[in-house]
Amino acid sequence: MDQNTDDVRRKRPPERDLDAMDRKLLGVLVEDATTSYAELGERVGLSPPAAHERVKRLRRSGAIRRVSALIDPDAVGKTLLAFVHVDTTGWGKTQALLAIEECPEVEEIHSVAGDTCMLLKVRTESTHALEGLLARLYDTPGVKATRSYVVLSTYLERPVQPGTTSDWPAVVKGRLLSPGGGPPWQSQTTPARSRS
Fold it and tell me: Among 83, 79, 74, which Cα is nearest to 125's?
């Protein structure tokens, strides 16, 4: 069976794994992608040409996919942020449903596991605009329900970070333990109270 896969992005194998220096460079660039190579090198301990070569390699490998501006939502009048769960009949990832990406209010579309099929992150200028977006979703064949969660306050919203957590707490017999062995909320210096 021949299928045209011209529009399918293939993952390129990385030239090499990211090392600690690559992660430092990415950490600076994720804060401000317009940082000069001179400042970038100074902040991570490389010469400007070495920083430039590493950034070029990170772009070639796909670790840096693109550079874009982060727009202040208030500046463009999109002050209402919501997450929309979309329930569908069947699998749900139809071309008709994915066409919702044409709306500039839709920032992210995810196929998810759990009690819904698709998860959308949308940013609109008003509840009226959100209602219009939901109406368009309901006009899409296969959509049977939506649940919208309007954000009241945002405490953290950031792009992908280069760092990783190396010391997650362990779960033993359904109980969360900190890296030191006790419950994560229990200080290592404070003895646990005995239960009588």
Answer: 79
pLDDT tens digits for range 141-176:
999 999 999 999 999 998 889 988 888 888 777 777
Q: At what angle do helices 20-31 and 48-61 cross, to 10 degrees?
A: 90
pTM of this structure? 0.73
- For the purposes of burial, counting CB atoms within 10 Å of the CB of 83, is it exposed (0-12), middle (13-18) or buried (19 or more)? middle
Which string of DSSP letters, residue by residue, matches 55-124? HHHHHHHTSS----PPPPGGGGT--EEEEEEEEESSS---HHHHGGGGSTTEEEEEE-SSS-SEEEEEEE
pLDDT tens, position by position, 82-99: 999 999 988 778 899 999
Q: How many residues does the chain have?
A: 196
- Residue at 111: amino acid letter: S
CA of 60: how far to CAs of 21, 27, 30, 32, 163, in Å? 17, 18, 17, 20, 20
Closest CA to 120 of 139, 134, 141: 134
| CB distance 28 to 34 below 8 Å | no
